[in-house]
Amino acid sequence: MVFERAILVVLDGCGVGAAPDAAEYGDTGENTPNTLGHLAEAVGGLNLPTLQSLGLGNLLPLRGVPPAECPRAHFGKVRPHSKGKDSVTGHWEMMGIHTETPFPTYPNGFPPEVIQAFEAQIGRGTLGNRPASGTEIIKQLGMEHLRTGKPIVYTSADSVFQIAAHEAVIPLEELYRMCEIARAILQPPHHVQRVIARPFTGDSPETFRRTENRRDFPLPPPPNLLDALAARGIGVYGIGVVPELFGYRGFRHAERTQSNPEHYQALQRALASDCAFLFANFEDFDMLYGHRNDPLGFARALNEFDGMLEDLLTHLRPTDLLILTADHGNDPTTPSTDHSREYLPLLLYSPAFAQGRSVGVRQTLADVGATIGAIWGVTISHGEVIDYGVQNRH
């Protein structure tokens, strides 16, 4: 019995308790995180029958999701290794890249040499240049943007350079061109992880709304599992933000879907494709609810995902390996609206498994990539193969 296909699904922002080094990231005191645990308490219990049957409740006390007596999946937790608590760092680590030095952040905004170079190359001034919530800074500066045509530049606790612009003032292709200019400018020591286009519509602070035409421009990653699989002719299907996080390198097919329902529709198409590794990110938990401190919305999204997962399991073959994990936390119950440094859930399922068992606490997300690579005899620089009790072909 060997596996022929791997499906990696990332539940963006779904941490399962503060990591030992959480205080180094400011996640202490009232901001001490436990995304799923605190969420379950805040909403009076979660209703996740499919995740419960796989063993999610075996990872941590989770109101409404008790431990499964006979979990269907192997279950464990992951302590992230890389320095950072963001999507790029988390996804890169999954593919075998350890980031030992944090990427630069800008709590006081970008320095003059960055902003002046950017303004000179785009031919206009900018607004903002400070850390901010994307929805709030659009409310605050959107009308001035409409009057002046100046793009809104802002950052966050993450290593990002974000550019917000009204789609009727700065057309999408022009906004994307500005992002490419910023990406070229932002080299060491200002090598932020991502430049992000944040288009919006509306005609007043009350009606301004970010659209689904966001686009990410990340740093190109070092060599990783995706490159090794592509070199062997293994087809990789990327869904959601995943291809952008890797600069679209190593993917046979890529779909930049924008919501959890769209991600699942793409995953269904991927299952019918010729690809052997399907890599999807479900981002609504983080983007729509974690950053906005919305526990009810977060819980609702998890319940909806649980229904998608129930359907997904019916389409899996005995030669499929499904891995569920997260890239970081984003606790919607703490005062902070930033990502949080947490342990991450790990569930490995296949119809070939008679019953799941604990795989313990892994010391890096690279164990996920090592386990996937082992299906095709590919090794990566970091990570250990998780023993799931089924023989690989190599």
How would you characterize this protein structure?
This protein has 394 residues and is an alpha/beta fold. The chain folds into 2 domains: 5-100 and 220-375, Alkaline Phosphatase, subunit A, CATH 3.40.720.10; 112-218, Alpha-Beta Plaits, CATH 3.30.70.1250. The protein has 12 helices and 14 strands. The chain has helices spanning 35-42, 49-54, 87-94, 112-122, 134-148, 172-185, 225-231, 242-245, 260-271, 284-290, 295-314, 366-375; strands at 5-11, 74-78, 127-131, 152-155, 160-166, 194-201, 209-210, 215-218, 236-239, 253-255, 277-282, 320-325, 344-349, 358-362. An 8-stranded mixed sheet has the order 10-9-11-1-12-13-2-14, sandwiched between helices. Strands 3, 4, 5, 6, 7 and 8 form a 6-stranded mixed sheet that branches. α9 runs parallel beside α11 (295-314) and α10 packs antiparallel against α11. The termini are close together.
Descriptive tags:
single chain; 394 residues; alpha/beta; Alkaline Phosphatase, subunit A; Alpha-Beta Plaits; 6-stranded mixed beta sheet
Radius of gyration: 21 Å
The tally of structural domains comes to 2
Mean pLDDT over all positions: 95
The main sheet orders its strands as 10-9-11-1-12-13-2-14
Percentage of residues in helical conformation: 25-40%
Element-by-element helix/strand order: EHHEHHEHEEHEEEHEHEHEHHEEEH
Major beta sheet, specifics? 8 strands, mixed
User: How many helical stretches?
Assistant: 12
Unreliable residue stretches: none
The CATH architecture of the largest domain can be given as 3-Layer(aba) Sandwich
Distance between the termini: 12 Å
Q: Which strand-content bin applies to the residues?
A: 15-25%
CATH topology of the largest domain: Alkaline Phosphatase, subunit A
SS-derived structural category: alpha/beta
CATH class of the largest domain: Alpha Beta
The count of DSSP E runs of length 2 or more, i.e. the number of strands, is 14
Name the shape in a single word.
globular
User: What would CATH call the homologous superfamily of the largest domain?
Assistant: Alkaline Phosphatase, subunit A
